């Protein structure tokens, strides 16, 4: 609803202000990657993702008078939080495309400067902080000075062009323009008469708070001064109002306003909601009541309870149907980026094996591709060759014998390495393939196959290809349900032969739950460290970013995965990720580096391309 209201006000403001230049518009999609690289190159947090900002309808209503006067704009203002740097989805504030593009880069530079800004005095206002951030950016990076000056000269006249502005508001706008032209030169904004609407947000600053006084109070708003008691509102009342939602009455007609959404987008939206997500350590105070209510429900046609008839997607299977548990569970650490410390034994990983996995031959549709890959990978297998100048061997090295006779005739000490040896040099490397078996792999990529089917075919062809090289390799899959239930499936160990028994295990894999990737990577690191190969590769197959039901979604999961990858590199491993997530290019460089991942646009190509990625990594 709020997004719809924002679009309506977006159009109204455009007509009223008349300051947009659609022909010169620059979209965020055109500069998103450049702005992200620019932000990180200037020292911005590499964990922040760049995304589109939205128009705040409440700010639009409060600043409507200013926009009618011509000092406002319709652009969704840039802002930054702990997870995301949000830039306007489109900038058409200037008649030149170069200026609109410069504004994107300036906002990225300002965000980087603001992150590195030392804390100011306790009584510092937002107006002073904005100026201090601009000064820091201009002093730190002289290269952005000319860009900033061009933007100010094009933007400042817009805020002062109205001749109908009241004197007090005119003085405030002059102070804002002076602060833009000479950051740090204005200590404070002039006092405004009671009831004066706030100033329009400054396009060249990051949003986050108003630059003017607090918004005026509507008749329906609670009394900000609590005049009944003559003092400020009590803490509990403030907390209650802080969580109050604005009510919007919808039309009652038959064809009233409808809200349309896609159910699959709910998980993505929750990542950006600032809510207190419960952890598995927190008891549910309503659990007893919920269980009592569920126990009283019954089906209409029989006496069986609903709980025995309905199985939710997130329920774990019964012990009789679940996979076989191997061992008591392995405690693993997890990185908490908020506390900047490693939580020891925070995760419990359980190794599992398929309960029903009869031996199976290679499926008929894959056999032709398997033969082709087998022929290609056979060339990677080292052949037998003659090694010259050896102390022992099966035949005499004629060249070495001639050099020895020449040295003896010249009075030099001749070499005793006079033989040829026929040897076969083995490739000293090991690879572990870790497959994401989360709930999202149950989605369909075509009318004939799901993501889990594509991953299954990729593992089968990978095993067939590496069988031709003789390289040591292992296969594993994982999913999770919170930190206490990370499920790690051992499909093939290094000492096992790839045969119908292993193929049966791969054919038995099925979609699991969620993606606690950091724990799975740490377990793979432990397994690869036990292998004595001089070169060890961790190949990760994924269809989305790390996430789980608890705090592991969003940046928490990404930062833990990043630390796990750094631990793997310190152990001498080479991690590489192959993903079919089209959004992967936004977060994978932060996890694996610019050359540590590959994004496959067509999931059906994964089975044939996975062995080729391995061939490139082992050259």
TrEMBL record:
CDD domains: vWA_norD_type. This is Nitric oxide reductase. InterPro entries: NorD/CobT (IPR051928), VWF_A (IPR002035), vWFA_dom_sf (IPR036465). Residues 237-249 have a biased composition (Basic and acidic residues). Residues 436-580 form the VWFA domain. PANTHER family: NORD PROTEIN (PTHR41248:SF1). Transmembrane segments: none annotated. Residues 213-249 are annotated as: Disordered. It comes from the Bacteria.
């Amino acid at each position: 609803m709020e997004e719809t209201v924002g679009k309506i006000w977006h159009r109204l403001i455009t007509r009223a202000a008349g300051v947009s230049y659609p022909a010169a518009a620059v979209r965020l999609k055109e500069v998103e990657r450049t702005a992200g690289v620019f932000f990180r190159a200037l020292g911005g947090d590499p964990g922040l993702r760049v995304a589109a900002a939205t128009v705040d309808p409440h700010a639009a209503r409060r600043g409507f008078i200013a926009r009618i006067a011509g000092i406002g704009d319709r652009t969704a203002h840039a802002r930054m939080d702990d997870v995301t740097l949000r830039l306007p989805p489109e900038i058409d504030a200037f008649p030149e495309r170069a200026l609109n593009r410069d504004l994107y880069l300036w906002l990225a530079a300002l965000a980087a400067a603001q992150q590195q800004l030392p804390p100011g005095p306790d009584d510092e206002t937002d107006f002073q902080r904005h100026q201090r951030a601009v000064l820091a950016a201009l002093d730190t990076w002289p290269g952005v000075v000319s860009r900033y000056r061009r933007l100010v000269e094009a933007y400042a006249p817009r805020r002062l062009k109205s001749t109908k502005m009241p004197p007090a508001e005119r003085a405030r706008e002059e102070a804002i323009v002076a602060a833009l032209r000479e950051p740090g030169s204005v200590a404070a904004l002039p006092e405004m008469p009671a009831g004066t609407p706030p100033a329009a947000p400054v396009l060249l600053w990051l949003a986050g708070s108003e630059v003017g006084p607090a918004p005026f109070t509507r008749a329906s708003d609670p009394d900000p001064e609590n005049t009944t008691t003559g003092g400020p509102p009590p803490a509990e009342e403030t907390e209650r109002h802080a969580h109050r939602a604005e009510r919007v009455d919808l039309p009652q007609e038959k064809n009233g306003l409808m809200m349309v959404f896609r159910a699959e987008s709910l998980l993505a939206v929750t990542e950006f909601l600032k809510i207190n997500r419960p952890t598995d350590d927190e008891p549910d105070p309503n659990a007893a009541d919920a269980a009592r209510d569920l126990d009283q429900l019954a089906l209409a046609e029989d006496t069986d309870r609903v709980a025995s008839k309905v199985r939710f997607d997130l329920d774990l299977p019964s012990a009789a149907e679940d996979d076989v548990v191997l061992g008591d569970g392995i405690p693993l650490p997890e990185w908490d980026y908020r506390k900047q410390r490693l939580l020891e034994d925070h995760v419990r990983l359980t190794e599992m094996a398929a309960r029903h996995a009869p031996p199976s031959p290679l499926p008929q549709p894959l056999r032709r591709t398997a033969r082709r890959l087998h022929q290609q990978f056979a060339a990677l297998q080292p052949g037998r060759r003659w090694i010259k100048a050896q102390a022992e061997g099966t035949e005499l090295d004629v060249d070495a014998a001639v050099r020895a006779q020449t040295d003896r005739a010249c009075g030099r000490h001749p070499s005793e390495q006079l033989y040829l040896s026929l040897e076969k040099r083995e490739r000293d490397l090991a690879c572990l393939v870790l497959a994401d078996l989360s709930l999202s792999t149950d989605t369909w990529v075509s009318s004939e196959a799901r993501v889990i089917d594509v991953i299954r075919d990729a593992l089968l062809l990978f095993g067939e290809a590496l069988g031709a090289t003789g390289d040591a390799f292992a296969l594993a899959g994982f999913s999770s349900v919170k930190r206490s239930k990370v499920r790690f499936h051992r499909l093939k160990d290094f000492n096992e032969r790839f045969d119908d028994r292993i193929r049966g295990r791969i054919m038995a894999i099925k979609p699991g739950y969620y993606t606690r990737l950091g724990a799975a990577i740490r377990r793979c690191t432990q397994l690869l460290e036990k292998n004595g190969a001089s070169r060890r590769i961790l190949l990760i197959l994924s269809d989305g970013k790390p996430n789980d039901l608890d705090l592991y979604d969003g940046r928490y999961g990404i930062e833990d995965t990043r630390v796990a990858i750094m631990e793997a590199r310190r152990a001498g491993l080479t991690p590489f990720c192959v993903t079919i997530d089209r959004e992967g290019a936004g977060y994978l460089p932060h996890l694996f580096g610019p050359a540590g991942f590959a994004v496959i646009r067509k999931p059906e190509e994964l089975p044939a391309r996975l062995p080729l990625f391995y061939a490139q990594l082992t050259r």
